[in-house]
Specification:
It is an enzyme of class 4 (lyase). By secondary structure, this protein is an alpha/beta fold. Helix content is 47%, strand content 17%. The protein starts with a strand and ends in a 9-residue tail after the last helix.
């Protein structure tokens, strides 16, 4: 079976690369399961100080794979795993991020992007809502900005993503921006990092505990709706859905 999660390690930092370029790293059931397995191994490995989540190709993630979508429960579990992992997780983005891929960014502890990255919550344009990914997004981002981009599906750039709280930093050279953070993590005590991360993620996990069941049910209901079927069919056929005026 083709590997869809690339892995490498340098000085205690494990890099996990989404590597399903044929589907623009869309979140398929197999990709979600593969990433969850890799994260579990990193969490148990005492030699891993931090994890960098990145991608191959020009897209970090195109969102849910419409042909092989993960079950909402599996996506919730993956997002929670990123938040709860006892190692800091840093996103490294050099391309486009859409829909569910933005949930991955929000679940990471730090997120860095290059100047050519673009972002969009495109769910409403195919007849669904950014339900499950709201679990890490709502506690970590500016509510007014999120309202605009949730409701309109507009595309925005890395500077706006920093302003809204989706990104930690954006730079022409993403690796140059990432380097000081990685060096800081390498100089930090592992147990202290784990406990500090626990402090920082407490409010995010409260949201999971309170809202995960309701948002999972909402996601499943919307994906089974007539509007979603029309929206997804229109997307795959590269046409406007019937409701466009």
């Amino acid at each position: 079976m083709t590997t869809i999660i690339g892995r490498s390690r340098t000085r205690g930092v494990e890099t996990l690369s989404l590597d399903a370029t044929g589907t623009r790293n869309a979140l398929s059931a197999r990709l979600v399961a593969g990433l969850a397995d890799a994260l579990a191994e990193c969490g148990k490995d005492p030699d891993v100080r931090a994890v960098v989540l990145t991608h191959t190709g020009n897209t970090f993630s195109a969102g849910a794979d419409l042909r092989e979508p993960p079950h909402p429960d599996a996506l919730v579990a993956l997002l929670r795993q990123l938040v709860e992992l006892p190692k800091p997780v840093l996103a490294r983005v050099t391309g486009h991020v859409r829909a569910g891929g933005l949930g991955l960014l929000a679940a990471c502890d730090l997120a860095f992007a290059g100047s050519t990255a673009t972002f969009a919550f495109t769910e409403v344009r195919i007849g669904v809502a950014p339900a499950v990914i709201s679990l890490p997004l709502l506690p970590r981002t500016d509510p007014r900005a999120l309202a605009r981009y949730y409701l309109t599906g507009e595309r925005f750039g890395p500077e706006e993503a920093v302003r809204t709280g989706l990104l930690t930093a954006a730079a022409a050279d993403v690796d140059e921006a990432l380097a000081p953070a990685l060096e800081g993590l390498r100089r930090s005590a592992p147990e202290a990092l784990a406990e500090t991360k626990r402090l920082l993620t407490a409010r995010v996990l409260e949201t999971f505990d309170r809202d995960a069941a309701d948002l999972t049910a909402l996601s499943a209901r919307l994906f089974a709706s007539d509007q979603a079927r029309e929206g997804m069919t229109a997307f795959l056929e590269k046409r406007d859905p019937a409701w466009v005026v």
